[in-house]
Design brief:
The chain is of the alpha+beta class. About 25% of the residues lie in helices and about 35% in strands. Strands 1, 2, 3, 4, 5 and 6 form a six-stranded antiparallel beta sheet that branches.
């Protein structure tokens, strides 16, 4: 089953947490199973501009890196910070879901894992 990620504003800013804080970073992990789908996402990832570290890629305000990769699966982390972080990770999640769907040979799965948000230092 290929899950489409739905934007979740309560993830970085739970209603009980108090005032809106723009100094938060969120990380969404795409867990992909299927050799063809994993290869399609890796090919797209490798075509993106390099981030601050050589293992990172950046696109539209989000930073991505491969957390785990096997011939038949892939975990890709998408991180973003600031006021528009939810939109940034959701935009990348849509691209990834489109790639997985296009490469699917009937056996692909895609699920999303929201890691706990972290507060980032201000400059």
């Amino acid at each position: 089953m290929i899950e489409r990620y739905q934007i979740n504003y309560d993830w970085p800013w739970p209603q009980e947490s108090g005032p809106f804080d723009t100094h938060v970073q969120i990380t969404l992990v795409a867990h992909i199973t299927s050799a063809a789908a994993a290869q399609a996402v890796v090919a797209w990832f490798q075509g993106l501009p390099e981030g601050k570290a050589s293992h990172q890629r950046v696109d539209c305000g989000a930073t991505m890196h491969i957390r785990r990769s096997t011939p038949a699966s892939l975990d890709l982390a998408i991180s973003a910070a600031g006021q528009d972080c939810c939109e940034m990770v959701t935009d990348q999640a849509t691209v990834i879901a489109d790639l997985v769907e296009a490469a699917d040979q009937g056996n692909a799965t895609l699920r999303w894992i929201e890691l706990p948000p972290v507060t980032v230092p201000t400059r």
